[in-house]
User: Which sequence fits this backbone?
């Protein structure tokens, strides 16, 4: 060992971090090298003096101040948890929206093919369509009365109207269910769960089940797509405002 | 970690303020002292320690028990100190050995260790008077390890955990920090001596 790495050895020696062999080498060296010996002694004095530095006490009101800040933090924390929940739910809503959109695209494709086959014998069905329209209109009126001025109502009404134009088709029904799921989620999100919800759902269900075939099959998916988009945007805008 | 500490941690994770306060009670003085020596004044130390403890309260859910709770807590204190220093950085605050600010700008004085001038044995009493202000003149990387090792008496392993670096790095940094501190004190002692002779 030489004077160059004596510094490192001195420090480690003070902390008792040298191996037996290293310690022996180090001790031999400082016995022989006067300059390293003084350097080591000085280092020891510095370290011992640092060890002896007095501890300072935190200010008298430290704990009181901290307690207040902790309470504030707790409030913020619960808020942020809600915020995160909201974020998660909007994530789910977005996923469902995308799912619905892609389903409608698939439908669109299928309908283009099926459209010709379905184009017959719809005159008697049109009556049924009219009656569902009336049903839904009254449903909507009821809900409006129950909820009062709810911002979501116009969206719902908007969406209902064209949905009774949807043809009865298994894939279509699936889509309807998906829409319903999305609905439930966003409802939870905005905290609007109420009796009206079940009404709405049954109304949608009914409308889907009673839906007659329509002539304007090719028009329908585009409309649904647009409406779902509008609904999605409206819901997110509503949530942002609420926050 | 004792079983009591484990249950206090669990309750703190659930947001219970009282449990958290009991949990940190025995560590907060040490936390305050680390901040005090890092920042050099009790006002900043108070602000930073409080901030660090709030951060710990908010983040205790992320404490997985890989290190002891105290080590985890002191890591937050250390990081909060560094954040504070970065935010309030003044031109002359970063120095490897020492840096001085003049009108022309900042220049650094490399402290040469005892290679050229033979050392004189220090007077212990004098050193004790000078050590606190001299720590304040160390660069922050060195100051950190001096505080943790020589003031707060953490082991190399604990320091490695707190600073999130290998133990070997801690070892060499402690050595360099101590020798740097010694050089600063040596300079001060020499200045004083020369001042006395000059009179």
Assistant:
């Amino acid at each position: 060992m030489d004077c160059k790495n004596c510094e490192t050895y001195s420090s480690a020696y003070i902390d008792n971090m040298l191996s037996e062999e290293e310690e022996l080498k180090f001790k031999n060296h400082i016995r022989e090298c006067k300059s390293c010996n003084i350097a080591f002694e000085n280092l020891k004095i510095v370290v011992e003096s640092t060890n002896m530095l007095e501890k300072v006490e935190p200010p008298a009101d430290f704990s009181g101040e901290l307690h207040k800040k902790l309470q504030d933090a707790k409030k913020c924390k619960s808020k942020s948890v809600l915020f995160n929940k909201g974020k998660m739910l909007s994530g789910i809503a977005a996923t469902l929206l995308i799912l619905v959109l892609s389903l409608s695209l698939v439908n669109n494709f299928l309908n283009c093919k099926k459209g010709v086959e379905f184009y017959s014998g719809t005159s008697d069905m049109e009556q049924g369509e009219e009656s569902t329209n009336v049903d839904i209109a009254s449903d909507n009126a009821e809900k409006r009365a129950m909820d009062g001025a709810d911002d979501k109502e116009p969206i719902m009404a908007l969406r209902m109207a064209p949905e009774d134009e949807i043809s009865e088709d298994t894939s279509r029904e699936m889509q309807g269910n998906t829409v319903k799921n999305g609905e439930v989620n966003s409802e939870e999100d905005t905290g609007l769960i109420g009796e009206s919800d079940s009404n709405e759902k049954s109304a949608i269900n009914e409308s889907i089940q009673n839906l007659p075939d329509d002539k304007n099959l090719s028009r329908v998916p585009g409309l649904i797509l647009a409406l779902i988009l509008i609904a999605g945007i409206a819901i997110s805008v509503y949530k942002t405002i609420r926050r | 970690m004792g079983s009591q500490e484990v249950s206090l941690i669990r309750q703190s994770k659930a947001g219970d303020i009282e449990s958290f306060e009991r949990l940190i009670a025995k560590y907060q003085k040490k936390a305050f002292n680390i901040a005090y020596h890092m920042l050099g004044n009790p006002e900043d130390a108070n602000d930073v320690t409080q901030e660090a403890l709030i951060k710990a309260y908010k983040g205790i859910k992320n404490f997985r028990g890989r290190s002891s709770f105290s080590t985890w807590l002191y890591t937050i204190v250390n990081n909060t100190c560094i954040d504070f220093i970065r935010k309030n950085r003044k031109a002359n605050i970063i120095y490897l050995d020492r840096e001085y600010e003049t009108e022309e700008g900042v220049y650094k004085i490399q402290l040469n260790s005892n290679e050229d001038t033979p050392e004189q044995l220090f007077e212990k009493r004098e050193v004790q008077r000078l050590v606190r202000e001299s720590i304040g003149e160390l660069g922050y990387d060195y100051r950190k390890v001096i505080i943790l090792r020589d003031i707060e008496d953490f082991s190399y392993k604990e320091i490695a955990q707190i600073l999130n670096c290998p133990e070997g790095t801690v070892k060499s940094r402690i050595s360099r920090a101590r020798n740097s501190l010694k050089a600063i004190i040596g300079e001060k002692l020499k200045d004083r001596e020369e001042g006395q002779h000059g009179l």
Observations:
- Residues 120-138, 141-196 of chain A have pLDDT under 50 and may be disordered.
